[in-house]
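Bug report (template v2)

What were you trying to do?
Predict the complex of my protein with cytidine-5'-monophosphate.

What happened?
Run completed; filing so the output is reviewed.

Input:
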Amino acid sequence: MEHIKLKAPAKINLTLDALKKRSDGYHELKMIMQEISLCDDIFIKKLQNPVIEIKTNVKWLIPDEKNLAYKAAELIIDRFNIKKGVSIEINKRIPISAGLAGGSADCAAVLKAINALFELYIPKENLMALGAELGSDVPFCILGGTALAEGRGEILNQISPCPKLFLVLVKIPVNVSTGTIFKSLDIKSITKRPNTNAMISAIESKRIDLIADNLSNVLETVTIPLFPKINTIKSKLTELGAYGTLMSGSGPTVYGIFKSREDSCTAADTIRKYFGLKDVFVCETINN
Ligand code: C5P
């Protein structure tokens, strides 16, 4: 095999709870993560020279050695003593700094792609451990599906697959740094926490109404006061028929769950026109 093309799907949080701040600076989390159909495309080619080339279809993503996809290639090539290089092309659709793990998704896809391209046969668990060195969301992006994530997000247990949810994702044009949001989180002042077990039961019983009722993310208390427009969008999604709405990760992306693809397309059109936003996506949950 000389080249490979892979999808790099984004994620949303169905719940996100922060239990405590750890001595290593990270937060101890408990969250339900879900793979969605919004994705980037990654195309990787073997190169004879030991170099890593990277390019993207968008101007705003600087494809240098700080890019997580570049770092992923560098790490796996170094760790497995690969003597060749790779050219990486990223067709970007997932907005960055948005709470959707866009960078982590590309990173995970590069690890998977190089594993396959160079026939390294690294088992999934080991690939996930490698991914954890690059970012807390990378292991989930390798695993996919529906999972309970603990620790700093890297301890994963796949749970019963979430029933198909029709989603509208809306990102206001601000970029949010996960680190900054976590830094402003005051754990002691959290009054409303997700009921993770209730969400797991709702997923197991395929009750979309109960999934919608249990959507909860403690980081909303930090990001929404900074960008109140997020709440306005949540209200509009509800007014347009969403069963429930939630900010994903550290934001600013929010999503609404709709009854059908048709309903989500209609709501997305209204949101685009009403707020004049371009980052509005219709997608659905996926399970491998
Ligand atoms: O792991 P990652 O590099 O994606 O995390 C970005 C930043 O988000 C971390 O540097 C940390 O400030 C914050 N974070 C956290 N607790 C987590 C995950 C991330 O405080 N569990």
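What did the reviewer find?
Residues 102-117 form the longest helix (16 residues). The mean pLDDT is 97.
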